[in-house]
């Protein structure tokens, strides 16, 4: 029961406060990761896989150990766990970034919608039409809901403070180093593979959650037939099931770092619009409610 209450407290802090405006620990961690990358990978990107493994260990393991020690402190260990979960979650932030995109699209302000969605996606948004903006935002809601919300809750439930810190830092390094380009292909290999491993089970639980909360039969069909075609082993199930649950079509061509990528089509139905961005966010929030309910029921049965 204390685990479920700790999750509720962390989610409540995130919903009430959102991300810290100043002094977010992940910002400081990002600077430390940049320093490690410059040292071990060099300015020319000639680091090897072993360099990436070393840098990952130096970035993640000491802070994970510190989280374990702090969570064991008498009297305040429980508060430390809640605070670390709060720092790891991005539930309110997801809405803070994506709801203005939906609002701008409704108002017909395409330049503002492009600018807003560019804050949260890595693709080039300058030439997107309204459907392309809505597609990018809906994909972001589904995928970031998995990475920044559900996976953090999963690892907190499984391993407490050290689990959620290990996961969140690993996920951050994947976002920074996990690119398949000349600079990071070798050095970032470890960060990408570790993040894939840590997300494997949570992503499939998220896909199941999306399927249950939407058009279940269609979501299961899209998950089974379309997810294997996606280049990410974890984003594929999440986005295919989410698109099927919403009854929209995602994927397709997108420009990343100046290169056109022909991505498989995910889901079935019409192209998403502003309302579908909101529906995707609503599904993430509903899924969080389902997970908390499962934790509460599990705690009650165990008691």
Short structural description:
The protein has helices at 2-17, 25-41, 49-71, 77-88, 91-106, 110-117, 130-177, 189-213, 216-226, 235-246, 274-302, and strands at 249-256, 259-267. With 303 residues, the chain is mostly helical.
* Gap between N and C termini: 8 Å
What is the approximate shape? globular
Report strand order across the widest sheet. 1-2
Give the low-pLDDT segments. none
Radius of gyration, whole Å: 19 Å
The fraction of residues in strands falls at 5-15%
Could you describe the largest sheet, including whether it forms a barrel?
2 strands, antiparallel
Structural class: mainly alpha
Report the order of strands and helices.
Answer: HHHHHHHHHHEEH
Domains (count): 1
Tally of individual helices: 11
Query: What's the helical proportion of residues?
Result: over 70%
Mean pLDDT score, rounded?
A: 94
Tell me the number of strands.
2
GO biological process, one term: cobalamin biosynthetic process
GO molecular function, one term: threonine-phosphate decarboxylase activity
Family: Belongs to the CobD/CbiB family.
Membrane topology: Multi-pass membrane protein
């Amino acid at each position: 029961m204390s685990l479920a209450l700790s999750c509720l407290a962390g989610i409540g802090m995130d919903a009430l406060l959102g991300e810290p405006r100043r002094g977010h620990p992940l910002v400081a961690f990002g600077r430390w990761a940049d320093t490690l990358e410059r040292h071990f990978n060099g300015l020319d990107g000639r680091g090897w896989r072993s360099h990436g493994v070393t840098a990952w260990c130096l970035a993640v393991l000491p802070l994970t150990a510190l989280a374990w020690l702090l969570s064991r402190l008498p009297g305040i260990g429980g508060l430390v766990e809640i605070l670390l979960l709060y720092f790891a979650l991005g539930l309110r932030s997801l809405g803070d970034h994506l709801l203005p995109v939906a609002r701008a699209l409704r108002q017909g302000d395409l330049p503002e919608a492009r600018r807003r969605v560019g804050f949260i996606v890595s693709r080039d948004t300058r030439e997107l039409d309204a459907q392309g903006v809505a597609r990018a935002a809906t994909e972001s809601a589904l995928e970031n809901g998995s990475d920044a919300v559900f996976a953090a809750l999963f690892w907190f439930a499984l391993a407490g403070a050290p689990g959620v810190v290990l996961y969140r830092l690993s996920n951050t390094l994947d976002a920074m180093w996990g690119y398949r380009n000349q600079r990071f292909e070798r050095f970032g290999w470890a960060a990408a593979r570790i993040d894939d491993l840590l997300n494997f089970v949570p992503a499939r639980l998220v896909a199941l959650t999306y399927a249950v909360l939407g058009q279940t039969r269609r979501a299961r069909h899209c998950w089974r037939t379309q997810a294997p075609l996606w280049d990410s082993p974890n984003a594929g199930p999440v986005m295919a099931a989410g698109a099927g649950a919403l009854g929209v079509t995602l994927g397709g061509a997108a420009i990343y770092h100046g290169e056109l990528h022909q991505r498989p089509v995910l889901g079935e139905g019409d192209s998403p619009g502003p309302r579908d961005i909101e529906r995707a966010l609503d599904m993430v929030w509903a899924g969080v409610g389902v997970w908390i309910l499962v934790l509460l029921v599990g705690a009650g049965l165990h008691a």
